[in-house]
Amino acid sequence: MYNQNPTLEGIGKKIDESKQGEVFFQGQFTDQGGAKRFYIESYGCQMNFSDSEIVASILGEAGFRPTRNMEESDLILINTCSIREKAEDTVRKRLRVFDKVKEGRPGTLVGVLGCMAERLKSKFLDEEKLVDLVIGPDAYRDLPTLVAGAEDGEKGVNVFLSREETYADISPLRLDSNGVAAFISIMRGCDNMCSFCVVPFTRGRERSRDCFSILAEATDLYNKGYREVTLLGQNVDSYKWENPESGQKVSFANLLEMVALVHPDLRVRFSTSHPKDITDEVLHTMAKYENICKYIHLPVQSGNSRVLDLMNRTYDREWYMERVDAIYRIIPDCAISSDIIAGFCTETEEEHQDTLSMIEYSNYSMSYMFFYSERPGTMAARKFEDDIPQEVKKRRLQEIIRLQNQISFKHNQNDIGKTFKVLIEGDSKRSDQDFKGRNSQNKMIVFPKKEGLKPGDYTTVKVYEATSATLKGNIVSE
Ligand code: 5AD
Ligand code: SF4
Fold first, then answer.
1. Ligand 1 atom nearest residue 339's Cα
2. Considering the domain 10-158, what is its CATH architecture?
3. Model pLDDT, residue 224
4. What are phi and psi of 117, to 5 degrees?
């Protein structure tokens, strides 16, 4: 059922891992010669990076070969993000760069994939004259056909959103792979309709992927030497799948357990959790299996109940605090991280203070922090005025960032003297004498190499130093 393609080998490079919203990478590949070549860049959330691996697989099956060099490619693809205005600005800037390549190499096709393609649809072709293809997140199977049409001069658009598509049968071509950690997409779309968010419009209705195909993918990754999988979805806690033959229902807690049982040496992570949906059953499953990582990304967005109501998050401050209490009660060593939006419509100074106090209450190990950016078509854009001045939004965001940095620093300082099981991911950024790897709590630890150890191995590291971003340690004998 899986389309293995051993001749394609993906190794890519993520340029900026710190900014979840505007992450960028280029695919880097071995050149196979002869065949038509594609180049792909991705922006936005982990789901986009995961989708690019599906796109690469579809194109590989259609006879295309990947290249790291856009100047020699026949097809330039950009997988786009619409979550904030800045993300869209970045994409438009990249399109200008692609235009230059096209001038020097007529016949090169440029395709826009992902959320911006879905949001702007055929308008893209009018706005950006040199774009040849516009393909939404559920239409990637159509890519080879649309490319063939575009080669004959026919610009192509497919932004059909599906209620069924999960690409379950497609084995992603691992881009940006360190051979140790990989993403597995377990569901698509989002039904939550948070009022600030464009995702339900760009990624369509929520649907869960067949759990057997997820297990097959996890097993295949383990057999290929991977030691960590991250189960991806906009709201993983609402994963639900029913076996059409047996009628057996599979919840997220069930799925988590099944993936944990693939192998005790395969670490399992997941993202993103929604505070309204994360159940005690999930928390108990996490506590039960050592290889389910003790880390939850639980976006709060705001610490104030009135703002949360306007955001249509469907929980209030007390509910969120209760979930945080439950996490620390059931999994005492769990780390929690968050997404936070500063300056949502009508937010007062007191309400902003509630967000600050929530950061302290939750003791987040880290957060992704943004100021509110109105997105056309969302409920907030239609119903509320974007009335917080830009300087106020920025100042509130700075206060949030400053506090989070302090809390992250304390959180990390608290790890000094502790020992952790670390999965080695590769050389540290600064020195090839050091390895980097993560502990279960998703913290990066840098430590001197020891002979005989390689990426994909586990080792035990004792921490002796900490900044707000990284831990330093030494291997201790097990
Ligand atoms: N403005 C600012 N941040 C946003 N996010 C989503 N939509 C917006 C917006 N319109 C943030 C949320 C979400 C994360 C992925 O991006 O915090 O959790
Ligand atoms: Fe957007 Fe809310 Fe869905 Fe997340 S849960 S993708 S913030 S609508």
1. 17
2. 3-Layer(aba) Sandwich (3.40)
3. 96
4. -60, -45
* Residue in 341, 390, 393 to alter for ligand 1 test, most ligand atoms within 8 A of Cβ: 341
Distance 375 CA to ligand 1 centre (A): 10
Average pLDDT, the chain: 91
CA of 198 to the centre of ligand 2 (A): 8
The answer to whether residues 161 and 208 touch, using CB atoms and an 8 Å cutoff, is no
pLDDT tens digits for range 211-232: 999 999 999 999 999 999 999 9
Angle of helix 317-330 versus helix 280-288 axis, rounded to 10? 20
pTM of the complete model beyond 0.70: yes
Distance 50 CA to ligand 2 centre (A): 18
Closest Cα to atom 12 of ligand 1: 339
* Distance between Cα 371 and ligand 1 center (Å): 8
Find the ligand nearest to 368 CA.
Answer: 1
Separation CA 361–CA 353 (nearest Å): 12
- Ligand closest to Cα of 21 equals 1
- CB of 83 closer than 6 A to ligand 2? no
Buried b vs exposed e over 54-79: b needs ≥16 C-beta within 10 Å? bbbbbbbeeebbbbbebeebbbbbbb
Please tell me what DSSP assigns to residue 3.
Answer: -
Pick the CATH number of 419-475 from 2.60.40.1120, 3.90.1150.200, 3.30.428.10, 2.40.50.140: 2.40.50.140
Q: Which residues of the chain have pLDDT under 50?
A: 1-32
Q: Give the burial string for 270-309 (b: 16+ CB within 10 Å, else e).
A: bbbbbbebbeeebbebbeebebbbbbbbbbbbbbbbbbbe
Which ligand neighbours the alpha carbon of 81 most closely? 1
- Looking from the CA of residue 272, the nearest atom of ligand 1 is 18
Measured distance CA(254)–CA(42) in Å, rounded: 32
| List of residues 6+ apart from 40 with CB closer than 8 A | 26, 27, 52, 55, 56, 66, 76, 77, 78, 79, 175
- Domain residues of the chain, as ranges? 10-158, 419-475
Q: Do domains 10-158 and 419-475 have the same CATH topology?
A: no
Give dist(CA 248, CA 242) in Å, integer: 6
